[in-house]
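Table S2 (text version). Query chain:
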Amino acid sequence: MSTQQIIALPTGFRPQDFLTFHGRDKLAVAEKVTANVLEKAIVWQGQPALLTLTFAEGEVEYSLAVDGGEHAVSDDALMRSVHHMLGLTQAIAGFEQAYADHPLLGVMITRQAGLRVPVSMSPFEALTWAVIGQQVSLSAAISMRRKFIQLADIRHSSGFYCYPSPAQVLRLPAESLRQAGLSLNKANTLLKVSELVLSGELPMDDWLQHQVETEVIAAALAAIKGIGPWTISYTLLRGYGWLDGSLHGDAAVRRVIKSLMAVEQVSEKEAQQWLQAFTPWRALLAAHLWAWQSTQQQDG
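Corresponding structure-token output:
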């Protein structure tokens, strides 16, 4: 069964940021970006599904094709998910107004006006992606994520692999997860997270729906072995659209800060202190720094 809707986009919306985020795996086993279209396989209410977003001037058309016969799709639930993924609820205007004239950031923010943080389809996807990406390069993390998805082996009829649900992750023993290149610690963390989500002890979707305070979410995540400050901040950013996590532990963030400040090195502590001045938009600033680094590399 499929459903199709259109959402009007705000002035200045940057589709390419969203498409670039979801198109990072060039082998495209689970999601594929072609021109202005994203196709992404997910598990929707227990069934394999294909979410398609097509961007046009000032709007995005989205549809969900669910395998399994006459499976009902809630239009409201799907619309909320798409709004969240696109970052349409993010309050970015205040940040842009506050720092448009900043001596180090003004040019960057002006050129990247309208930048929003692309969000994962679910908080669980954001958290598991953050665990996979701990202390490895982006290319290594993308490779491990791809193999992780393929190990779960949940296929949509389109041929795409779906990002697995907690129940599907729990079917994979730690030894199998290590075939994706994960360390034993990461494998065990993924299994523990999946177990806690499935049992209801880590109600990540409910937290999103009821807009639970980030402090509550952060405290629950911090209690899990294998999850530290960077993983928490990244999960809150990509899973909940929280724009104030301090991503000073991110190597790319520190590299751009170093370049902006024209210094030889920036430690995690120094980056943390520098970012503190930009509360409550530290994670949004990190997203600008990531985008700026990518732009500078292309220009170079």
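Notes on Table S2: The first strand starts at residue 2 and ends at 8. The chain has a mean pLDDT of 93.
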